[in-house]
Amino acid sequence: MKKNAGNPERRRKRNAFINRDTWRRFKKNKASLVGLILFLIFVLFMIFADVIVPYSVAIENNISQRLQPPSAEHWFGTDAFGRDVLARIIHASRYSLLMGIVSVVIGIVCGSVLAAIAGLYGGIADRTIMLIMDTILCIPFMLLALAIVAALGSGLENLLMALVIASVPIYVRVIRSSILTVVESDFVEAARSLGTPDRWIVLKHILPNAIGTIIVQATMSVGTMITWAAALSYVGMGIQPPAPEWGAMLSEGKNYMLQYPYLVIFPGLAIVLCCLSLNLMGDGLRDALDPKLKD
Amino acid sequence: MDSLLSVRNLVTRYETDSATVEAVNDISFDVLPGETLGLVGETGAGKTTTALSILQLLPERTGVIKSGAICYKGEDLLSKSKEEMRLIRGACISMIFQDPMTALNPVLTIGEQIRESLEIHNYDGLSREQLDERVDELLEMVGIRTSRKYDYPHQFSGGMKQRVVIAISLACNPELIIADEPTTALDVTIQAQVLAMMMDLKNRLKTSMIMITHDLGIVAQTCDKVAIMYAGEIVESGTVRDIYLGEKHHPYTVGLFGSIPDLEKETRRLSPIEGIMPDPRNLPTGCKFHPRCAHCTARCEREAPPVYREGSHEIRCHLFAAEDANGN
Fold first, then answer.
1. Which of A3, A192, A200 lies closest to B57 in CB terms?
2. From B100, B149, B200, B282, which residue has the greatest number of CB atoms within 10 Å?
3. pLDDT (tens digit, 9 = 90+) per residue, B163-181?
4. Which residue of B has its CA nearest to A1?
5. How far is B278 from chain A (nearest CA, A)?
6. A235 Cβ partners below 8 Å, 6+ apart?
7. What chain A residue is nearest to B180 in terms of C-alpha separation?
8. Burial (CB count <10 Å: 0-12, 13-18, 19+), residue A230
9. A157 and chain B: CB distance < 8 Å anywhere?
10. Which residues pair with B237 in a beta bridge?
11. Quick check: ipTM above 0.90?
12. Domain B5-92+174-327 sits in which CATH superfamily?
């Protein structure tokens, strides 16, 4: 038993950097709480899409029902093939959220490793990595992603790969700069003066201090990636019909936009709300995770 | 008595593409077991560089030890491998940093940070409980309630943080502690408390210490020996008695004492040393102090002064060296 078991301070979690304090500070920001709830709703839709409405409803043509305005039967109306727009939006959330989250997770992991190598070892490793990253950054994001998809062919995996390759340089830049500030700090030097091995310094001192930046960057990026995935699908380079995807739905709806505006309004709203929720969450997280605001 | 640490003719440079900074120029000193050496000098005199050279923590890309020897218990530290040096740091020689505000990791509790150095050098295979006990013991030693070990650094005041830093540096019972201006960042009342505590612990644990400071008051209170540094050189060294009560002094030392108020003398103004430290990228020839020295002669501008010795008291100045030569 620890000496001071029963002491109220004992209850405080010892190790967690992301602890209940983080949640308390996050809660204070009402806007980010709204963002979190909104995002959770999207996630629930994504998980339970098949329970809410079968996938077949979202992809099978039903010409007799085509271009119905919103009604009790079809809340968001139907599209030119008679497919229920709401069902398509719900199932599209699977593709969009999945692409957003997966591309960011892969991108952040690759980005962190590269940034850590560049930031810690410096010198030739730093210069080589940053040269490559800067070169990629010179190419406009959309153009690069388009080029990659065009070269590899469209499809979910290739779209993901394009998003990852085009976004890694951004993560490397942001994470490297936050690692550099930590590496230069006194407590890292103090740790060195105690004979702390390099791997401990990275795991216990540098990463925990940079993780806030990484999490915020990740949250914000999911929204961006969803938008880019939608944009690529909009120009026909992403998810292929009849699979539903928000960007692809916008693209299909644009021909009927003047007479049937709901065909673009609802998928557009889905994209906007999803990104908004993630950005609000990211803002709140940034404040909650900043160690300097820990009062 | 054999010295614990002996530094001989240490030369350290910072080399960048555009310039070479001559930070430490040929300094030598010894620290005996249980002794405190005060390293005194202005900002930029090379005090911290000396400390970092001993621990070999100089910035990797720029800092180079050009020549000299640093012997710890008779073993040359400069010939040790990186891994051997890592094992020495913290366990045998540890360092207290200047600013406790930034020397602690903001995302770890202080208990974890004290434990960390214990875990790194846990050669006796102590269990978790034993390590926890040792953390409690260390906190009590520096006068912090043990229940506060779950608190984060931002929940402590500056003085308390410095106590934590001291606890960390003492964790593995090092034989030498290098304290780099340990009280500069603290206010005066806390300074006295922290210093008194440090001295008490040092005497109890029989640790040697190198006290880096620019405060001559602290030196008088805490040190056995003093070395006064100017532009990377030790211009005067000796026991505290030699420096404070000796009759002969390097003009720079005289200047340093002239810069602190004296309670017994009525002076309207302090007499600071005119001028500023020379640019270490472009040091003056001869005596490094000659551009600011009131007793400067043509010889000072040409030749580096020899060492004038009087018992344990050493002065590097032409003023006394000349006397010495005439006397013999």
1. A192
2. B100
3. 999 999 988 889 999 999 8
4. B129
5. 27
6. A146, A251
7. A190
8. buried
9. no
10. B227, B314
11. no
12. P-loop containing nucleotide triphosphate hydrolases (3.40.50.300)
